[in-house]
Fold this sequence. Notes:
Radius of gyration of chain B: 13 Å
Oligomer: heterodimer
Radius of gyration of chain A: 13 Å
Amino acid sequence: xxxxxxxxxxxxxxxxQEVTLRCKPISGHNSLFWYxxxxxRGLELLIYFNNNVPIDxxxxxxxxxxxxxxxxxxxxLKIQPSEPRDSAVYxxxxxxxxNEQFFGPGTRLTVL
Amino acid sequence: DQQVKQNSPSLSxxxxxxxxxxxxxxxxxxxxxxxxxxxxxxxxxxxxSISSIKDKNExxxxxxxxxxxxKHLSLHIVPSQPGDSAVYxxxxxxxxSYGKLTxxxxxxxxxxx
Lengths: 112, 113
């Protein structure tokens, strides 16, 4: 298994632009999680899905952030419009049931 | 209000000595506790875990201790090796059916040769 796949690995954009981060979970996993890592706050949970349904999006910082999971093998996290304070590493993780989560390599986002 | 805290941002240890990483939590309903390790430019990887019904779990050089009365979790690495240098996150599951984890801020461990 290739593990959790995230794209792009690096994204540099200008303030005000739309950013879309992508995630392919491990096949067979039924829960998917989006995290943001910053020096100040560590790993923050933004939103998670179970069986493609959003369960809790209380960690999404603002309405500028949105996430979708149209099917079991794909999820997106969108920021529109992006701001410099959104610069961080964004991780996607998946799991089956309540077992440990498997993380992707992350997307390093820089908003200028 | 942070439910999981790692109060030491960094720890420096000599090769061969013990590394002790600490984690405190506030919610006594948490039922499962994990440690993840993260190398630069990689995602966190699962290291070791412990259920709330136990107070110790050992896996090779890694041992996790749980003190429920103090709401305190620790990871011991003995002996420490330079390859252990990484960021260590404690993570706690809240008992829901979806495997949601709450992570601490992380501790950067540096093991010097």
